[in-house]
Amino acid sequence: MIRISVLFLAFAFFSCGSNDKSKENAQENTSGVTALTDEQLLDAVQKQTFKYFWDYAEPNSGLARERYHPDGNYPENDSNIVTTGGSGFGLMALVSGMSQGYITKEQGVERLNKIADFLGKADRFHGAWSHWIDGNTGKVKPFGTKDNGGDLVETSFLVAGMITVREYLKDGSEKEKAVAQKFDALWKGVDWQWYTNNKNVLYWHWSPNYAWQMNFPLQGYNECLITYVMAASSPTHTIDAKAYHEGWARSGGIVSSKTKYNIPLILKHNGAEEFGGPLFWAHYSYVGLDPNQLTDKYANYWDLNVNQTKINYQFCVQNPNKNAGYGSDYWGLTASYSRNPDGSIGYNAHMPSNDQGVISPTAAISSIVYTPKESMALIRNLYDNHKDETWGDAGFYDALSLGNKWAAKRYLAIDQGPEVVMIENYRTGLLWKLFMNAPEVKQGLTKLGFKSGKYGI
């Protein structure tokens, strides 16, 4: 099943639980006669990848499909299934698309209004949305038998996008203000306190049929930091800071003294303490949450993410498993579609300790804020040298094994979304600025003991 990344890691590893001429030229210039500048190339990637959330969104809801298969073949007949977390990244992508001029603001606002209305009628569970939603009906699509209710982590990715949209539109026209208000009300309706189950920790799931039986407390470190930030920032259903410190940070046990390639890991990555986890852990929480100058008593979050990315890069450069092509311009391990031994398409949480010979373009591309030189090397290699086999309707395909002349010619929202958003943050910082300057986010970060010189926290 797709998007098993965290659940796979959890149960396998966790011990605890624009439209102007120049931009058109950037995209259409495929002859290779005139090399694109880095800025033109980045714009081409950002614009093409944005199509996932515009051209190929689920038509009824306007939200991000869980997956998009350009060939139209959906073995599980799930082209109408939307993903909550990926749609959060998609909300930020829509803001980026309006800002870059890929769509007009009027077009973007119309889509955002449609999304807000759909989410307002969709199934919710103590305010939280489910992982998957049927785009036709708004009803929950179970992610698993007992995972048929609220998914707090996916909800946190979604509401981070909602806050970003609200901040972008709040001082605009009357229509823009009205849409901003809709998203504000949706975010304030999430009952984060419920998801503590009266303990000093947040829980991932709650089901109306199975209650707390999934029993997955959110303990760090993985991709779930933003869940605690959102919960602490809520003006309506906030949590006590103890949940963060005792639950997520394990009363200090989250800190790691380990190094790899002489690079400190800083925090203990659940089930991946030697090399760090899949690179989406450095992306999902940080599409809005700006790690620049962000610290608390456990970590400097810029160093944390840069270091994880550099370790992942060094592993691919050193290439201990002798995978064909791995190197300084072909690297990046994270959860994505994968190549099964028989050459068919599967799914896997790739990371240095689970290297399957598959490179996921989102790993390096979404890390461009941390490793601009190394990430550009991967982008340029794929675009200049392997475009025919790696580039499609919505940007670079989800997963590649060039040594096996193989690519998963499919896309996932949770992989394309961070690419658009992190390229935007690298180019302009827009999404970071919007999210970090939201008043309740500043209050929530302060409550948890975070400091940020960049934002005066």
TrEMBL record:
Coiled-coil positions: none
InterPro entries assigned: Glycoamylase-like_cons_dom (IPR019282), UCP028431 (IPR016883)
Domain of life: Bacteria
UniProt domain Glycoamylase-like: residue ranges: 215-438
A Pfam family the protein falls into: Glycoamylase
Name recorded for this polypeptide: Glycoamylase-like domain-containing protein
Organism of provenance: Flavobacterium johnsoniae
